[in-house]
Target: Thymidylate kinase
Amino acid sequence: MALEPEPEPEPGPEPESAAPSITAGSAVPLHLGFARMRSSVSLLIRTSPRPLLASRRVRTVSVPLRVAVSQRLRHTSIVGPTQATEGARRRRRPAFMMGRGALIVFEGLDRSGKSTQAQLLARALTEGGKDVLAPSPVQRPPSDDAAGVEYVWRFPDRSTHIGQTLNTYLSSKDAEPLHRAYSISCLPRPDVVCFLSVSPEVAARRGEFGLERYENTEMQRRVRDNFERLFAHTAVSDHNIHNFDADREMQAVHRDIVELVQRVIANVADSPSTSVLSVWSS
Ligand SMILES: Cc1cn([C@H]2C[C@H](O)[C@@H](COP(=O)(O)OP(=O)(O)O)O2)c(=O)[nH]c1=O
Model:
């Protein structure tokens, strides 16, 4: 969507220095670890009380949970469009105009319903008058051309080079294991992580299960066990992770998610912070 160019404002105060928002040149999280990277789906929901001023410049990133808890990250990878958008936003808009969105992350096993629930949530919030736009079925991070719309972003974005590399790997049943670690500085901290807990048996009954290399019940069970170990880890337990029984009927799960997210959005709207915090900041 083309946006009208905006007049260049006088420089405003910088956002809080303690809140390390991602700027041009910083990196975006991507980590392929020893097992496999779990995909995530993120929503950034604008909660600014000044929608006319602030509704069009937002960004979001997805936080693979395993990255968020790994202490052994290297700081290597760079992803462009998102940073360009952030840079453009900072140039155009003084900080006092920047409310911030709520970063909602969905995590879970393959076929646990991350995409479905993210889309249902985006629709429900939009219908409820929240400033959410979730392009569907194409879900892309913002570029300068499409800057400023809230969106649902699937991670990894398989239209990007990195996403295609992952896709090739995950779609190939007989390739040698690819152990690569991409990582980042500045991991944004989700306002809430909705973990969709599905049993491997239920997941296996859902559409298209088995097309990717790790979509088998045994592997999914191992991943689920690892998630449970992570959740028991104290460093993870304070990351606003909420567990949803995703074996249930999708509308029942949806209702619970909406109830929680409404509360999260209200809290973010009341918060004085103008940017999403870093995972590592206290
Ligand atoms: C949530 C949900 C999804 N599905 C189907 C829709 C999709 O074809 C498939 C996978 O759902 P999807 O939302 O794509 O899962 P994820 O993003 O976690 O991999 O399962 C169900 O049959 N029942 C459900 O309750």
Residues 1-39, 45-98, 133-151, 174-185 have pLDDT under 50 and may be disordered. The CA atoms of residues 27 and 150 lie 20 Å apart.
